[in-house]
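Q: I have 128 residues here and want to know how they pack in 3D. Can you give me a structure?
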Amino acid sequence: MADTFLYLTLGTNDLARAARFYDAALAPLGLIRRATEATEVGYGLPADHRTRLWVTLPFDGKAATVGNGSMPALVASSQQAVRDFHSAALAHGGTDEGAPGLRPYGPAFFAAYVRDPDGNKLSAVHEG
């Protein structure tokens, strides 16, 4: 993520609920909460000097909505990290969009898909 994107944002309507979800779901991927602000929380790798994923209340004050067709795919260090991401997401208010397993996008494309409590779709992927 560090070499491709400066950062990504996802909207939420309940920042405290989103923070609980993302703290748990991103931990198996090695991502930590790097910032906590009044209107947003941010995540990144411990060694990265930037916060790369922000979960935010919309700046325009309107309700957050999901992007149809939008989905960040996050790198996982192992198939077990993908499984742990999926389990943590479901245990913290997420919903299943695809159980951990191999996908037809490559010979070793192992992924899981979830929606956060606001309906944003996320994936964790291990290619190895």
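Q: Anything worth noting?
A: The two ends are 17 Å apart (CA to CA). Strands lie at 8-11, 32-36, 40-44, 53-56, 73-75, 95-102, 109-115, 121-127.
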